[in-house]
UniProtKB/TrEMBL annotation:
Protein name (record): Sugar hydrolase
Assembly description: Monomer.
Domain Glycosyl hydrolase family 92 N-terminal: 32-290
The keyword Hydrolase is assigned to this record: yes
Matching NCBIfam families: aman2_put (TIGR01180)
Any one GO molecular function term: hydrolase activity
Lineage: Bacteria, Pseudomonadati, Bacteroidota, Cytophagia, Cytophagales
InterPro entries noted in UniProt: 6-hairpin_glycosidase_sf, GH-type_carb-bd, GH92_a_mannosidase_put, GH92_N, Glyco_hydro_92, PNGase
């Protein structure tokens, strides 16, 4: 795999940053989109810009979500459409999630081919039976904003780049009278035969095609519009409709719609466009997306990509990445440290994604067209994952964007007939994935950290309304009984613990805003975590509606034990809002510290996570599951004991085990940037254990130094003295020269600018 092949560098576009960080360094060279594309990372290697609406990337297989009427488990590895171990590419589609554990998207797949026309994708073991092609990682280049590969079976070099809303393709063809571009309007990720509800296409002229498709998948009703233009006219074109026979077809049957017919509609369409090419001729395609209309897609195309200079678009994309990566400039003598750090920065800045046209129009949750006034509308909210560290990271490095994301959530609430903030939402849909109401900690974290250029009281009201919806996921029982009973609603312990934390966030907001009635109500609810703690065994445990603990219980199993994507060992430590109270109820420090130690040192046999897709051996250290989110704060809990040095040792142990600059370098799904945000915070030396609190817990920095270039124009410098792989313990920490007496750091101290100096040692 060729990781580094950057061309022009563009530091002249960043004079202010260049002055602050002399000498300015090309940081894009260290960010590797290929990381996480093998095994469980579920990342994509293709071209996109920071938080871009287009993610133009190769797809390596077209497995169906359904197999013999049931879920096909092989599909899971294709959440991002690409698996590094595959030998063939089916084509290049325009929308992808990064690091998710479920999926959708994969819209509008384009594949260039030569030779006799084929309109089926073929199979991985017999690629010549269709339009797919073999490829080699030796010819593959994956950089931020740019992707390149040779399609060996067609002798075509494919190159991809992007703006926010436009994907740009450049295909270098051989000489051929049989050159084709296939537009597959059937392809998709987590696809199945009935996922396409409807597709509509207009061939406007010999270089312009517009249309839309509507799908019914993870997003129940998702409509995406497009405008596609070619750099040269096609000689002719055609289509094939793979739909099952319709009962009623009107009178369209009088036309031959398979060849040169400009007005197409159906459930399962593939199109082809024919060209004659000379040797090494570059055929270019621009493909714009819109959530509202084909006219807006065309306007997005003309606004963002008016010309045909591929290298110019690529350089602009990489300038954008350089600017975003330069928000943190780290020091390290080891290239691997920079590769891990800036790859994590890259992945953290992929989503949430822009979801509006260049003029601010977007499709809302009510399926009507709205206009974002004074903010950028975002989608792709994987909140069960990203509230933990990604959104807190944005409050440091991307405060304007994070405030816009909160306003996007509030717009979702306004459009919600259920009167709910987002749970897991994308493309004007709520898909109700995972548990809790974790828009709340995102909103609370912004309010508590002073990043709330919106009506904070209105935001609090939305949080309260969401948290009082008795019909949602056992919430009525939770309010009535003080816990979710397992015999009434599954994953009951996880729900109880996560509701209690979210309620604590509401209480913090209410207290800050002077809403004492709300504070009292939710501060009381925040104590509900105590109701599922079984003092006799020392673990959180599912309770039944009659108030008894469920007899059948296994603290190691991740299946049907009252937890979601976790076991009692990991989830029993989930009281991030009050670790001191957790330690007390578990028997005090003398019992808690050995218990926490054993989490990292015991062995979790495979049988205990065999029935869950989201936990694999790659992401486990002892019984600590880093490859999944519920325990991401756990290594920092030693800070609430008299042995904070154990946090320092654990963090420095986790970092190199779970993150490497290789295709299989992520210990689990990146989950829309959460895994990467954990790395960034931890490598810098602090972590947001409880978003909604302005306090960070200190750890052990892995960098040799860093400068945070803040949006407010100030800088926060992290100095690390005596840094080495052996010196993992913090002998002393000073903030602006003053010695810290507690292993904690306040958010405002960062945003004010200044210096945090760690002095490291080989012993605690």
């Amino acid at each position: 795999m060729k990781l580094l092949s950057l061309t022009t560098l563009f530091l002249t576009a960043l004079p202010s940053l260049a002055q602050k960080t002399k000498p300015a360094e090309n940081l894009v060279q260290y960010a590797h989109p290929i990381v996480g594309t093998a095994k469980m990372g579920h990342t994509f290697p293709g071209a996109t810009v920071p938080f871009g609406m287009v993610q133009l990337s190769p797809d390596t297989d077209t497995l169906s979500y359904e197999l013999n009427g049931k879920y096909n488990p092989d599909m899971y590895k294709y959440c991002a459409g690409y698996q590094y171990s595959d030998k063939t590419i089916v084509g290049f589609s325009h929308t992808h999630f990064s690091g998710t554990g479920h999926s959708d998207l994969g819209d509008f797949l384009i594949m260039p081919t030569t030779g006799p026309l084929q309109l089926n994708p073929g199979t991985a073991d017999k690629p010549q039976s269709g339009f797919r092609s073999t490829f080699s990682h030796a010819t593959e280049v994956a950089e931020p904003g740019y992707y390149r590969v040779k399609l060996d079976d067609h002798n075509i070099v494919a190159e991809l780049t992007a703006t926010n809303r436009v994907g740009m393709h450049q295909y270098t063809f051989p000489q051929s009278d049989q050159s084709h571009l296939i537009l597959d309007l059937m392809a998709g990720i987590y696809n199945y035969p009935d996922k396409n509800v409807w597709t509509f296409v207009r061939v406007e002229n010999d270089t312009l095609v517009t249309g839309y498709r509507q799908t019914n998948g993870w997003a129940r009703t998702r409509t995406v519009y497009f405008a596609m233009t070619f750099s040269k006219p096609f000689t002719d074109y055609g289509s094939r409709n793979f739909s099952k026979k319709q009962v009623y077809r009107g009178f369209w049957g009088k036309f031959d719609q398979t060849k040169n017919f400009p007005d197409l509609a159906g459930e399962q369409l593939r199109m082809f466009f024919n060209f004659k090419t000379t040797a090494n001729e570059k055929l270019k395609v621009k493909f714009a997306l819109s959530p509202t209309s084909t006219a807006s897609a065309l306007q997005n195309l003309r606004t963002e990509a008016p010309g045909w200079d591929f290298d110019k678009v690529k350089n602009q994309a990489q300038q954008q990445w350089q600017q975003e990566l330069s928000k943190v400039v780290i020091e390290s003598p080891k290239k691997v440290d920079k590769e891990n750090f800036y790859t994590a920065m890259y992945h953290a800045f992929l989503s949430p994604t822009t979801f509006m046209d260049a003029d601010g129009q977007y499709r809302g949750l009510d399926q009507n067209t709205h206009k974002a006034e004074g903010f950028t509308n975002y989608t792709t909210f994987s909140l069960w994952d990203t509230y933990r560290a990604l959104h807190p990271l944005f409050n440091v490095l991307q405060p304007k964007r994070n405030a816009d994301m909160v306003q996007s959530m509030l717009a979702h609430f306004d459009q919600s007939v259920e009167r709910m903030l987002p749970v897991w939402s994308h493309y004007a849909n709520e898909n109700w994935c995972m548990i809790g109401y974790h828009s709340v900690p995102v909103i609370a974290d912004a309010v508590m950290k002073g990043n709330a250029p919106f009506d904070a009281n209105k935001a609090l009201d939305a949080c309260v309304t969401t948290a009082r919806n008795a019909w949602y996921e056992g919430l009525g029982y939770y309010v009535q009984l003080g816990y979710v009973p397992e015999d009434k609603s599954g994953s009951s312990v996880s729900k109880t613990l996560e509701y209690a934390y979210d309620d604590w966030c509401i209480a913090q907001m209410a207290q800050k805003l002077g809403r004492q009635d709300i504070y009292q109500e939710f501060n009381k609810r925040a104590q509900n975590w105590r109701n599922v703690y079984d003092q006799r065994i020392g673990f959180m445990r599912p309770k039944l509606a009659d108030g008894s603990f469920r007899p059948r219980f296994d603290v190691l199993s991740t299946n049907d034990q009252g937890f979601i994507e976790g076991n009692a060992w990991n989830y029993s430590l989930y009281v991030p809002q009050d670790p001191a109270a957790l330690i007390q109820i578990m028997g005090g420090q003398k019992r808690f510290v050995p218990h926490l130690d054993s989490l990292f040192t015991m062995h979790l046999p495979d049988k205990f996570f065999a029935e869950t897709e989201d936990i694999t051996r790659d992401g486990i250290i002892g019984n600590y599951v880093h490859g999944n989110e519920p325990a991401h704060h756990v290594a920092y809990l030693y800070n609430w004991t008299d042995q904070p040095w154990k946090t320092q040792a654990r963090v420095r142990m986790i970092l190199p085990k779970m993150y490497r600059p290789t295709p299989d370098g992520l210990g689990g799904n990146d989950d829309c940037g959460q895994m990467s945000a954990w790395y960034i915070f931890s490598a810098l030396g602090f972590y947001p254990v409880a978003p909604g609190s302005p306090e960070y817990a200190l750890g052990s920095p892995a960098v040799h130094g860093a400068v945070l270039n803040l949006e407010n124009g100030k800088t926060f410098r992290i100095n690390v003295k005596n840094q080495s792989d052996k010196n993992v313990y913090v002998k002393e920490a000073r903030l602006n020269g003053q010695k810290l007496t507690r292993p904690f750091l306040n958010h405002q101290a960062i945003m004010n600018g200044g210096e945090l100096t760690f002095t490291m040692a080989a012993k605690p």
